[in-house]
Amino acid sequence: MNDPEPRESPAVRCGEEAKRRLTVAQALVAFLARQWSERDGRRRRLIPACFGIFGHGNVAGLGEALAGAAAAGVDLPYRLCRNEQGMVHTAAAYARMTDRLSTLACTTSIGPGATNLVTGAAGATINRLPVLLLPGDSFATRRANPVLQELEDSRSYDVSVTDALRPVSRYWDRINRPEQLPAALLAAMRVLTDPAETGAVTLALPQDVQAEAYDWPEELFAERTWHVPRPRPDEGVVRRAARIVTAAYRPVLVAGGGVIYSGATDALRGFVERHGVPVVETQAGKGALPYDHPLAAGAVGVTGTAAANEVAANADVVIGVGTRYSDFTTASGTLFGDARFVNLNITGFDAAKLSGVQVVGDARESLTALGAACGDWASPPAYRSVVAELGARWAAVVDRARHADPQAPPTQAAVIGAVNDAAGPRGVVVCAAGSMPGDLHKLWRSTDPKAYHVEYGYSCMGYEIAGGIGVRLAAPDREVFVLVGDGSYLMLPSELVTAVAEGVKLVVVLVDNQGFASIGRLSESVGAQRLGTAYRDRTGAPLPVDLAANAASLGAVVIRATTMAELRAGLEAAKAAHRTTVVHVSTDPMAAGPDGGAWWDVPVAEVSAVAAAQAARAAYETGRKARRLHLHPS
Ligand SMILES: Cc1ncc(C[n+]2csc(CCOP(=O)(O)OP(=O)(O)O)c2C)c(N)n1
Ligand SMILES: [Mg+2]
Q: Which residue has a Cα nearest atom 10 of ligand 1?
C-alpha cells in the first residue's frame, strides 16, 4: 500500500474545546486514518486499510462509517475478505512484512464473525505481530436481548463471545460507552507499536454503541505519530554478557525473528564477522545472514540441518538474538549442551529463557553494544573452519535433495528447489503448516531477510494464501510464492477469491499429496498408525477430488504440472501472468526430505496393546533423557 504524504495537524482551538459530532464508528475510522508509525526517521501509515466482513453487528456502524469515509475526507479504504480468520492472517503477514511498523484493521459482525477471529489472533500474538481486531458485539444497552448470535450466558449478561479473544489479545477492551473510546484507542495504538508488547489488539464494539453519536474533542482526530523505540540495553548487563561471550571457544548465535523486525541484519553481520561467531537461524530468523556467508551455519532445531544442529549442540556459549526459544529451536530442550546463554531480546520475558543473561533492548542496538563490549575478541580460527566444513557438507545434501530429472514426477524437495530458483533473490516464499516448513527451513536458500516468510509460531493451516495477500500488499514490488499443502489449502481456499477480487497477484504452488504427509509420518512414529492422515474414502480408495479445478472455479489461472520440466515452465508462466495463478503439482506423501537429526517432544502412549506404540514409547523415553533444563544461574 502506498504511504500518502504526511499531512499537517489541524490547528486545535484553545479555550473552549472544539468538538466534532460523529458516531463511535465514524470517530474510530477518522482516528485510525490519522495514525502513523515512525522508526529511524521513516514515517508510514500505521493502519492504511481495513479488511472485513459485514453482518448486522457492524454493517450499520462501521459499515456506514467506512462507506462514508472518503466523502468525509478520511482515508481508510475497505477490502472484503472471505473468511475472518483469513483476514487476520493477512493483517499479521502485512505486519511481519513491514517489520511490525504497520498493520491492518479487521472488522467483523457479532457472533461467528467475531469468533472466527480467534485463531488468527492467537497466531498474531504468538508470532509477536500487531493486528487490530474490531469485532462487533451485542447491544451494550441490552435493549434487544437476546440479539441474533448472542451467547446469553445464564451466569451473567456481561459475558459475550468476544471474551474468547481476551487470552489471545495483548490489549482487549469493550467500548460500552462513547466516552470510553479515546483512552481505549490510545492504549490500543500504544500496544500495537510497542515491539515488546505487540500482538493482537481487540476493541469489541457493541452494535448499538457503534451507531451512537457523541461530541468528540477535535484533538482526538489530530495526526499522531507513534515512535517505535530502539531501547538500549543496560550497560552493566552488556558488560556481564561480554564477559561470558569473550570466554567462549565455540560460540553460536541463534538468529530469531527479532533480528529481522529490528532491521538488525547488518549489525548482526558486523558482529559475527568481527568476532567469528557462526549463525544458526530459526524459522522466523531465516535470511538474517545470506545462506552462502562463511559464518551461516543454517537452520537450527527440529526443522534444522545436521550441520547447524551439530554447531548448536557443541556450543559453549549461545547468543540468542530476537528468539523466543520455541521447542522447535531447542529440540524440546535436547539440542544445546552445557552452554551459557546470553539473550538479546526486546522483552525480558524472552530474554530470561534458559537462564540467560538478559540483555533487554532492541536487537540492533544490543548487538552494537555487545560487539563494542567484546572488543577484539574472536573465536579460534580452527573452530570457524570446522563450521565452514559442516556447512559445505550440508550444502551437498541440499544439492542432492533438490536435484531432479526434468522428466521425473516432482518430489517435495525438488519442488522447493524449483520455486527457490523461480523466486530469485527477491521473491517471497510463504508457508505455514504441514511438511513443507521443515523442508523449506532446511533446503531453501535465502539471501534476503524479507524473502522467507514461514509462519511457524502457530503453524496455522490456512495461513498460506491469506498470508500471501498480506505480504504482497505490503511489498507490491515483490513476487509472492505461496507454497501450500492440499490439507492447508482445503482449510481456507476462500482467500483465493479475495486475492482475485482485490487484484493481489500471487503464485500459489499447491502441493497435493492426498492428505497429511507431516502428521502421517508423525503418527507412524508415535504408534498412531497413520489414522486419519490420508484423504481417502471409507473403502480406502482415492477421492474424486480435483483441487486444481477447485482453484480454477475460484477465479485463479491454473497450471497443472506432472513433471519437473512442466513445473519449472509453469512457474515461469505464473510469474509472467498478471493474475493469481495456481500451479498444481502432485507429490508422494511417503517421500521425506533430509533430516537434521533433532528430537521433538511428542508424548507417546505409556501403555498400549499396539507393538508400534510400545516401540515408540521406548524410543521416546530414551529421547527425553537428553533434555536439559538450563538452570545455570546467569
Ligand atoms: C488449523 C490447524 N489444524 C491442524 C493442524 C495440525 N496439522 C499440522 S500439519 C497438518 C497437515 C497438513 O496437511 P498438508 O497441508 O496437506 O501438508 P502435508 O503435511 O501434506 O505436507 C495438520 C493437520 C494445524 N497445524 N493447523
Ligand atoms: Mg498434504
A: 434
**Helices assigned H by DSSP within 278-431:** 306-314, 327-330, 348-351, 363-373, 381-402, 412-423
Compute the mean pLDDT over every residue in the chain, rounded to the nearest whole number: 96
Which atom of ligand 1 is the closest one to the Cα of 589? Answer: 20
162-174: per-residue pLDDT in tens? 999 999 999 999 9
**C-alpha 485 – ligand 1 centre gap (Å):** 8
**With a 6 A CB cut-off, is 432 part of the ligand 1 pocket?**
no
Fill in the amino acid letter for 502.
Answer: E
Please indicate whether residue 465, judged by its CB atom, sits closer than 6 Å to ligand 1.
no
Position 9 pLDDT exceeds 70: no
CA–CA distance, 404 with 420 (Å, rounded to integer)? 14
Facing residues of 432 across strands? none
In this prediction, residues 366-393 reach a mean pLDDT of 97
Mind listing the pLDDT tens digit for each residue in 482-503?
999 999 999 999 999 999 999 9
Ligand 2 centre distance from Cα of residue 590 (Å): 11
The closest-lying atom of ligand 1 relative to the alpha carbon of residue 436 is: 21
Q: What cell numbers appear for 371 in the block?
A: 560487539
Beta strand spans in 176-323 (E) = 200-206, 213-217, 224-227, 251-255, 279-281, 296-299, 317-321
Domains and CATH numbers, the chain: 19-227 (3.40.50.970), 235-392 (3.40.50.1220), 403-586 (3.40.50.970)
Distance from the alpha carbon of residue 491 to the mean position of ligand 2, in angstroms: 12
Q: What is the pLDDT of residue 363?
A: 98
Q: 405 alpha carbon to ligand 2 midpoint, in Å?
A: 23
Q: Hey, whose CA ends up nearest to atom 16 of ligand 1? A: 487
Amino acid identity of residue 268, one-letter, is: L
Residues whose Cβ atom is located within 5 A of ion ligand 2 = 485-487, 513
Q: What is the pLDDT of residue 8?
A: 43
613, 524 in Cβ contact below 8 A? no
- Collect all residues with Cβ–Cβ distance below 8 Å to 173 and sequence separation of at least 6: 180, 184, 187, 188, 202, 203, 204
Helix (H, G, I), strand (E, B) or coil at 45: strand
Per-residue pLDDT, 634: 77
